[in-house]
Design brief:
The chain is mainly α. It has 12 helices and no strands. The N terminus is likely disordered.
Length: 299
């Protein structure tokens, strides 16, 4: 009969011959060796395989256990991974705050604040130059004028740079007006001390500057008093007038500086009264808005 295997054709004797050495030369001893090797290399329910048999201590067994288990293969591993991810996301905002604080701290050292610091450092330098050699030496007065001019020029640029390039900081808000009042006050006091400028002029200008600064702080809860064009013109006129007095001018230039200072005093008084008016209006508006808000909440 064709197409029939020899084992089937031979019956039981054929089957016995298939299991014998003819099927690959496998002896009972070699069969047991292969079975033992397969048991050692293949991980079963008892787990471990050759790694478990070769482990020399319980610590080795524990060391190999995590490597054989993956987080995705068990619900517990998945839970641990989720917990770790949640903890990482919870720690992220804290790191973001620290980074933001570091950026804010570094932003203090920007070009606008550096110009303000330079203006503060020029104040004692200006005083020393102004009073050097009795305060009447034209050369020292020229150097003092140079320091005063640099301070006034930096005052024009630091605020513009801070607003244009978003460099406004709390330090700049506090230090900028202090530097402005310091350099102008130092110049006025030195000029009056040397007899070049009447004390009442110094008193009017400094009194107005300090009074308006205090007024701004008093009404800041209701709003901010913006700088007007008259105030900017006043600052420019004061700077020009004081600068002309710092220089040892004679003749018609000495007469011209008197008129420039007179214009500066007038602008100082007029703009000061305008700021007082704005402060009163701002305060009234703020009080009215608060009363209206209270009435709405009560209704």
């Amino acid at each position: 009969m064709t197409g029939v295997p020899a084992s089937a054709a031979g019956g039981p004797s054929g089957a016995r011959r298939a299991k014998g050495p003819a099927s690959g030369g496998l002896t009972p001893a070699s069969g047991r060796a292969l079975a033992r090797e397969a048991r050692d290399t293949a991980p079963g329910e008892s787990g471990g395989g050759r790694a478990r048999r070769d482990a020399s201590s319980p610590e080795d067994v524990r060391a190999t256990a995590p490597s054989s288990a993956s987080p995705s293969s068990s619900p517990e591993g998945t839970g641990n991974a989720g917990t770790a991810e949640a903890q990482g996301s919870a720690r992220a905002p804290r790191g973001g705050k620290i980074a933001a604080a570091a950026v804010d701290q570094a932003s203090v050292w920007n070009i606008a604040n550096l110009l303000t610091m330079l203006r503060l450092l020029l104040v004692p330098a200006f005083v020393m130059l102004m009073l050097a050699d009795g305060g009447y030496d034209p050369a020292w007065r020229s150097l003092a004028w140079a320091a005063f001019a640099i301070a006034m020029i930096t005052d024009l640029f630091d605020g513009h740079l801070a607003r244009t390039y978003n460099l406004v900081t709390d330090f700049g808000k506090i230090a900028d007006p202090i530097a402005d009042k310091a350099i102008m006050g130092a110049a006025l006091i030195c000029l009056s001390a040397l007899g070049d400028l009447p004390w009442w002029v110094t008193g009017v200008i400094l009194g107005r500057e300090l009074g308006i600064t205090l007024l701004r702080f008093l009404v800041i809860r209701y709003g901010v008093i913006p700088a007007s064009r008259g105030g900017k013109l006043k600052t420019l006129t004061q700077g020009v007038a004081v600068g002309m007095y710092v220089l040892a001018l004679t003749g018609w230039l000495a007469t011209l500086r008197w008129w420039v200072m007179a214009a500066a005093v007038v602008l100082t008084v007029v703009t000061g009264l305008d700021y007082v008016k704005q402060a009163i209006v701002l305060r009234r508006q703020g009080i009215a808005e608060r009363e209206a808000a209270l009435e709405e909440t009560e209704e």
